[in-house]
Write a structure and sequence with these properties.
Number of strands: 5
Low-confidence stretches: none
Oligomer: single chain
Helix content: 40-55%
Number of helices: 5
Shape: globular
């Protein structure tokens, strides 16, 4: 059986817990990252398959400690050639979330294990 196509999303937990951002603002960061990743990689075959089946889209949303950890994850994804988008909230230029382009889970799962 083929591995399902999923989109991994990682959001900073400190935005809620330490910095007291409203829940809606934190959710918006994940939404921005997802939209940007889908748009950037819109011609990729896995993205096309993922968006052709709107009713069965599968996202895996994870938390990460803070901006330093998020930027380290982005660097690791770059090093491993995993396509993603690091969302930078403007005008502060603060990294808040990462979304990968949709991939077969078996290809990217290892990059998101603690």
């Amino acid at each position: 059986m083929a591995s399902p196509i999923v989109q991994y999303v990682v959001v900073r937990s400190d935005l809620l817990r330490s910095l007291s951002w409203p829940v809606g603002a934190v959710i918006a960061q994940a939404c921005h990252a997802c939209t940007a990743a889908i748009h950037r990689f819109r011609d990729d075959s896995d993205v096309c398959k993922y968006t052709d089946e709107l009713a069965t889209m599968h996202k895996i949303v994870l938390e990460i400690q803070d901006e330093t950890a998020l930027r380290a994850l982005a660097a690791a994804l770059d090093e491993n050639k995993v396509d993603h988008h690091l969302w930078l909230e403007q005008p502060e230029n603060v990294a808040t979330a990462i979304a990968c382009k949709p991939y077969p889970r078996s290809e990217v799962q290892k990059h998101f294990k603690k």
